[in-house]
Each structure stands twice: as C-alpha cells, then as structure tokens.
Amino acid sequence: MTTQLIPATIESYACDYSSEESNVLAQLNRETHLKVNLPIMLSGHLQGKVLEFISQMIQPKHVLEIGTYTGYSAICLAVGLKENGLLHTIDINEELYDMCQSYFEKAGLSKKIIQHIGHAAEIIPRIDCIFDLVFIDADKQNYHLYYDLVIDQLPIGAYILADNVLYDGEVLLEQEKQSKNAKAIQAFNEKTRADHRVIQVLLPIRDGLLLMKKISD
Length: 217
Ligand SMILES: C[S@@+](CC[C@H](N)C(=O)[O-])C[C@H]1O[C@@H](n2cnc3c(N)ncnc32)[C@H](O)[C@@H]1O
Fold this sequence. Notes:
The chain has helices at 8-16, 23-35, 44-58, 72-78, 97-106, 120-123, 143-151, 180-194; strands at 62-66, 86-91, 113-117, 133-136, 159-163, 198-203, 209-214. By secondary structure, the chain is of the alpha/beta class. It has one domain: Rossmann fold, CATH 3.40.50. Strands 3-2-1-4-5-7-6 form a 7-stranded mixed beta sheet, sandwiched between helices. Helix 4 links the parallel strand 1 (62-66) and strand 2 (86-91). Helix 3 (44-58) packs parallel to helix 4. The relative contact order is 0.14. Bound molecules: S-adenosylmethionine. S-adenosylmethionine (SAM) binds next to helix 4 and strand 2.
C-alpha cells in the first residue's frame, strides 16, 4: 500500500469526528512509525475504530487474527470480547513479539490475547477453538488459503474481515498491469463473492476492508 485512497483531508475529518485514539494505541502508533519497518501496515486510528466498533457489536467469545504486526488491530479487536473471551493472533515475525506483549500489557489485555509465532497456515489448524470473528491481514497471496482453513470450521453467524482488498486501487487495473499481490487479492474478492455461504460488503476505508458473515454451511 503506497498511496492514500481516501483524500487525506477526508480521512483527517473522519478521525476528528470519531472517538479519540486511546493513549496506549496512540503510543503504539507512534512507536511503530519511529522504530518498525513498514508502519503503513498498521491499521491506524480510523480503521482501528471500525474494528473496535465491529468487535463491540458482535461481542465475540473467540477471535482469530492472522497478521499481528505490532498489535494495533489485536488491541482494537479485543476490546469487545465477552468476559472470559480470548483473541488468538498469529504472525510469522518473532522480532515484534516483545513489543506486542508490552502493549497488550499496557492495554490491560495480556490475559485476553494469545500470541502465536509462525506460519499462519500451520498454526490455524492447531488452534482448537470455535471462532466467531476472524480478521485476515497477513500475506496477500495466502488470503484464499486462510479463508479455506477457517470457513468450514466457523458457526453460522460468524464474521470474517479481510484487509487491503482494494490493494492500493490496483484491483482496478487490467490483469497484466497488476502486481502478484493485487492479482491474489482480486482472485480472493472473486472467490468470496461467489461463495454463497457468506454475505459481504466491501468498505472503501483505508485500503479496503471486506466484511463477511457466514449464513449457511
Ligand atoms: C499488514 S501487517 C498486519 C497489521 C496488523 N493487523 C494491524 O492492523 O496493525 C501483516 C503481518 O502479516 C505477517 N505475515 C506475513 N506472512 C505471514 C504468514 N505466512 N503467517 C503469519 N503472519 C504472516 C507479517 O509479518 C506482518 O506483520
């Protein structure tokens, strides 16, 4: 993701009229921008609030996040967890483990967030849990695989969210001009649209957020 799909002035206005970023999330946002590669990957204030809202509306018992990065979206998604609820988050990059842990602690969520390090495709089948909310936000080439790994296991009524489904607007280009990742995202968008087990809406916020709900087996 390199350019801004929503005009910066509109994004800024939307942030101004959304609830404030918590101190912990603002600090995490700042530290990620100062110290970590590719800070553009962090969900940020506006999308973070959307994730928080969705989580608070669903009040999930178990959440699966694929792609922790520095833990911003994990904290947002954990906000709406039911009492005794748990969020499992997976990332292949072990270098960010300690930073995530320290922010989960600061947010008072360290007992509610379980961090897994490794390839998501290997870890997902090992987590023995019925999820009511899944957030796909890792390597774009494997979105289809993550979807296939979770969809059969989800109960009817569960939700799947997928980030970056506009892939910097590249999904609009002719196929020959699309990057490998954009092609993978386009194929994922086609696949989920054709899957009658889910209903979906694509929100053009940030880099595109796809919301799906499982309605049949
Ligand atoms: C876009 S970032 C996640 C951003 C985070 N969800 C947020 O909103 O703040 C994508 C993350 O996926 C991780 N990732 C890439 N390939 C992966 C894989 N095969 N398994 C698990 N994580 C992977 C990367 O290390 C990176 O931290």
